[in-house]
Amino acid sequence: MKAFLIASLFVTALAAPCWAKDPACNGPEFQAFRNDFEGAANANDKSRIVKLISFPVEFWSAEGKHDVQSGPVKSEAEFLQRYDTLFTPFMRKHLHTAKLLSLPEGHCALTWHDTNSEFTFEFRYVPDNGFRAIGYEVGAY
Q: So which residues are the signal peptide here (predicted)?
């Protein structure tokens, strides 16, 4: 019986990390990430910003001549090549006042409204890396 108890405690100790939940959007981990993301955006630090994004990105909205297009961004290199259209001064300006939302599946969002549009950065927790941006979307409000 004693051997069974020791074995079950050992198995539980090994499995315990699997039960750990990802950090919450309103927790200190996301707040630290948000400060880093906003700091990089305010400094227009392209190399730091790409390190805070999880590539490949499935959706990222970009506006050109009042026409919003959304599509994937496959790599850091592609993001940097298209940086001026993918990470604009308008986006950087609104990050500080964006409202934090908790989304399903543990995702977090920073969102704001302007005229008739809603703008949203979406984030998720990536084990061993912390929170990372996974998309940016513009939609009707």
A: 1-20
List, in sequence order, every residue forming a beta bridge with 84; answer none if it has no partner.
none
Q: Percent helix, strand, coil in the chain (nearest 5)?
A: 45, 35, 25
Record the tokens describing residue 44, joined without a space: 């227009």
The CA–CA distances, whole Å, from 121 to 37, 39, 47, 60, 109 equal 11, 15, 18, 9, 5
Query: Is the CB of residue 95 less than 8 Å from the CB of residue 109?
Result: no
DSSP 37: H
In this structure, what DSSP letter does residue 106 have?
Answer: G
Q: What does the alpha-carbon distance between residue 18 and residue 72 come to, in Å, rounded to a whole number?
A: 31
Q: Cα angle at 138 between 100 and 108, to 5 degrees? A: 25
Structure confidence by residue, pLDDT tens digits, 25-48: 999 999 999 999 999 999 999 999
